[in-house]
Each structure stands twice: as C-alpha cells, then as structure tokens.
Amino acid sequence: MSHAYLPLTDFYDVKRDQEGHRYIQPLIRGFNLTRIPLLNKGTAFTEQEREELGLEGLLAPQIDSLEALVERAYREFQRRSDPIDRHIYLHNLQDRNEVQFYALLAAYIEEMLPIVYTPTVGDAVKRFSQIYRYPRGLTLSTRNIARALPAMRNVPVNDVRMIVATDSSAILGIGDQGFGGMAISIGKLSLYTVAGGVGPDKTLPVELDVGTSRADLREDPQYLGVKHERLTGEEYLGFIDRFVEATIQRYPKAIIQWEDFAKDAAFTVLQRYRKVVPSFNDDIQGTGAVVLAGVLNACRLKDEALKDQVVVVHGAGAGGAGVAAAIREGMRREGLTPGEIAARVFVLDSRGLLTDDRPMEAYKQPLATPKALTEGWAGTQLPDVVREAKATVLLGLSGVPGTFDEEIVRAALANTPRPLVFPLSNPTAHSEALPADVLRWTDGQAIVATGSPFDPVELNGTTHHIGQGNNAFIFPGLGFGCILARVREITDDMVTEAAYALAAYTEKHHPERIYPPVPEISKASTHVAVAVIKQALKEGVATEFKVRRMSDTELRAFVERKFWKPQYLRFQME
Ligand SMILES: O=C([O-])CC(=O)C(=O)O
Ligand SMILES: [Mg+2]
C-alpha cells in the first residue's frame, strides 16, 4: 500500500540536511511568507533568504536575531498595562510570527502565563467576539457539523497530534461562554507548546459550537457563535460523534484533551470516547492529579500522611468530582479501605453534602457519603461538615468566590494546627478565598495553594509562596508523554502517575514548597511526561516501539530531545 506523502503543513515542510540539521522547505514564496505565522521570521530573514525567497525590498533593512525580536516585542508588551490589552497584543503576535511569540513566552514565562492563560484568558473568552481577528483552529458548529471531515481537511496542518476541544459549557468558573470558549482551547495549546514541548504545527484548538444557553449571548448582535439553544441528548452526542469520527480520519495520531465541559457532559463524553480515541478530560483528571500532587506535598510538609487527612471538596462539577476521585485513589494507595475512605472524603455541591439518600446526577453518586455517617450531625452545609467531620483539608472547586470565609477557615484550624486550604476556582475573581486572608485568619499556619496565580504573602516577617495548583502542571506533560509513546488509550493510572511525578519533582527540587515555581513548568512537565510513558509501557498501551527498551535516563533524554523549542530554522527552496 502506498501513501501519498503529505508535507507537515500546506505551506512548508521540515527536512534534514546531510549533517542532520533541520531546515524549512517552503511551498510558497515571496510576500505570502510574511503572512503565515508559522513561517514568518519578520526582520530575522537573512540576506540570502530575502534574495532566494523573493522578499527583497519587502522588509526593513535591519537583519535581526530572534533575541532582538523578542526584546522588541517585550518592550511593546510592557507599554500596555491592562492585562486584556497585553493578551490581545500577544495573540496578535502569535498570529503574525509564531516562533517570536513562543520565544517571548519562554523568556518571560512567569509574566506571560497569566496573560495568555489563567486568569486573563477568562476575559479573553468573555470578549472573544470583540477581539476576534484571524481564524485560528477549527470551529465546528451546527452549521457545518454535517461536513465535519471536509471542514477538518481545510485545516492547513497535516500531522496534528494534540487537540484541545471544548463545548464551552463550563469555562473555568465562569460558566457557559458559547463561541468564546475557543480562547481557552487556544490558551491551553500555547501551554502545550511552551511548557509541554509540543510543536505549534502539531496542535489544533477546536471549538464545538453546539449553541449556548445564554439568552444574552444569543441576542447580542456582536456575538459570533451560532444563536440557538445548546443541543442536548442524542443531538448533542451525534454532534460530538461526528467530530470524533472526522478527527480519527484526518488525524489518526491525535490525542484529544476535553476541556471545560459541564458536569454530566464531561463524564459522558470522557467515557464514550476514551477507548475510541486517546483522550482525557483536563478538568476531571488534570485537576484531580494536580491537586493530589499538592496535597501529598502539603502533608509531607506537616509530617503527616494523606490517609490521616479528612478532606472536604466544595464543588461537585467536573473539577470537584475529579479531585475527590484522585484523593480517594491516593488514600487507597496508602492502604485505606473503601469504608475508611468514605469517612475521610466529603463532597458538597451547591445544596450541601452529597449523601446517598439524596437524588442526584449519576456521576455524583460514587462521591456520596453514606447517610449513616452523618448521624447526629448538626447539619450538612459547609460549616457543619467542616466541624462535624473534623476536616483538615479544604478544597474549593465551586466557582463561588468567598465561600472559604473566616468562620470556615477557623473551623478547620480548630481540627488541626496546619489546615490545608486550597481555593482552586478560576479565574482569580472566582477564588473561594484570598490567600492573604486565609494566612491572616490562621496566623500563617494554613498551607495555601490556589488555581489562579497569586503574589507571595508577607505576614509577620515571613514570606509565604502561594503554590499554583493549576492543571497547567499536569496536562502539558501528560499530553506530551502520550504523544511520544503513541498511546492507544490514556488510563487512570497514567494520570495518577503524572500526579506522583509532579509531587516527586517538587519534593526533590523545592522541598519547602508544594508546587514548583512557574518558571520551572517545562522541567516539571518533562518529569511528568517520562512517568506517563513508563506507565503506558507498563500497561501495554504504548505503541511507539522506540521507547520500549529505554532506561529511565534514556527516556528522559529522549523527552528532552523531542521538546520543541522556539528557533528560526534556515530556509532552503529544495
Ligand atoms: O484553565 C485553568 O486555569 C484550569 C482549568 O482547567 C479550569 O479552571 O477550568
Ligand atoms: Mg478547565
């Protein structure tokens, strides 16, 4: 059987010369080269390239290095002070000169991450119809889903390995955002590249526009999505089926990250497709893993074990359910029985504790506390549960700001000298508490981590770093490992191993912290990727032959070698 050879993209291919150095063979020439973000070098096109590629006279005379271009862009970035303006600036740069964009991100990652990602990406989602400029990624909607495969064939990239797809039904903690959810798929994939080593020409953001339940969006003349109610039931699943079928045909090597699907849909979609196409749900599994890693490290800091904790998870959406499952798995690994775990992990939704006598959605049922365990309790609302269950760990995934108030935090402090308080909802405005408040109420004793970035807190002469318990420390390495091992499935144990790898990385390099500092995100991802590949091999789901006989050291070197780094490759016409 012969396969027609497809270049990497419709505009160029990457080749190797006799010495093994990579170069770009462009399939277009001249002015158009400056309009393709993956090709454009701006003023970094060399003199020879300008001559050979038909660019002479079209560019400024100066010939720059990538470093010089990064500095120029950084100055322009700094001239803007409003985060959303900075986001728009970076997004425009990404659409103009992608290597420059990633080099800038990599050079100033701590400053850039909150702009391209959480929290500012939340504003970008809300304002996406206003800030939309160039097409990026794939939008499937009720207008074109019947032609999903031809639509996907229009995507000019031929070897996509990583897809982030959202139906926008529960973006961060800000709910249904319709077409705007595309910004989250784009933002997550920027992290896949800068923190997870996946080349930008291997990524595809996808918006599954199945409508919106928000009447205000449907009635807004500026809104760019389809203006009808969300599809539900069979119609909804039929839509997602068509997307998955088209993906398998057009991109048989792709992995899908399901992002920001509301509650039931998150579980339904994950279960329906995880054995059809290698895929995982970032909010259930990625958040679960990152929180497990942080809780393990926080326990280590107070010389206790996870199995000694009593954990309250406030919020029973995809994130809350995933976190509860991950914590239970961690306790199981420490030897607790299901009965013992049930007495140590309590999940609440907006109506209070999930108890097994309450009617509830199917996905919540495994999280419910046996009613008998609450016998004699004063109540089952959050303050009651913290007191009666003697909670030592508070995990906020409710999306409701301020729920971890002084009363709740002090109640946890009465149960343990050092409570773990993690307000994890995103973006910042939805955080369950402010770290400075939590530390003040507990006289600096609480161990705090948040979902969105927060500045360190100074209290009584001590600086408290606030760990960022965001799935950004998991998904890039998880996805990258899955790509490199060419997995046919992403198992729960692969995700759990990602959590333990992140915890181990932090313990080794920053024993005083519970998460690594953000500038080390790509190093941490490398460790996560190695652990994921090893577990995939163990479970027999890795189909990449190359990784099978590698030692740990070889595996690490392999992952590091494959990690995409921003650089301008030389152009050569053939
Ligand atoms: O995007 C983030 O910052 C983390 C996440 O998945 C969410 O909050 O839904
Ligand atoms: Mg999410």
Essential attributes:
single chain, 574 residues, alpha/beta, Hemocyanin, N-terminal domain, Rossmann fold, 4 domains, seven-stranded mixed β-sheet, five-stranded parallel β-sheet, 22 helices, 41% helix, binds oxaloacetate ion, binds magnesium ion, NAD-dependent malic enzyme, NAD, EC 1.1.1.38
Count of individual beta strands: 17
What overall geometry do the principal axes of the alpha carbons give? Answer: globular
Instruction: Determine the CATH topology of the largest domain.
Output: Rossmann fold
Average pLDDT, all residues = 97
Helical proportion, percent range: 40-55%
* End-to-end gap: 27 Å
Number of helices: 22
Biggest β-sheet description? 7 strands, mixed
Strand order of the largest sheet: 10-9-8-11-12-13-16
Q: Poorly predicted ranges (pLDDT <50, ≥5 residues)?
A: none
Bound small molecules, which ones? oxaloacetate ion, magnesium ion
Number of domains: 4
CATH superfamily placement of the largest domain: NAD(P)-binding Rossmann-like Domain
Going by CATH, the architecture of the largest domain would be 3-Layer(aba) Sandwich
Secondary-structure class: alpha/beta
In percent terms, what proportion of residues is strand?
5-15%
**Radius of gyration, taken over Cα atoms and rounded to an integer in Å:** 24 Å
CATH class designation of the largest domain: Alpha Beta
Pfam families: malic (PF00390), Malic_M (PF03949)
GO molecular function, one term: oxidoreductase activity
Keywords: Metal-binding, NAD, Oxidoreductase
InterPro entries: Aminoacid_DH-like_N_sf (IPR046346), Malic_enzyme_CS (IPR015884), Malic_N_dom (IPR012301), Malic_N_dom_sf (IPR037062), Malic_NAD-bd (IPR012302), Malic_OxRdtase (IPR001891), NAD(P)-bd_dom_sf (IPR036291)
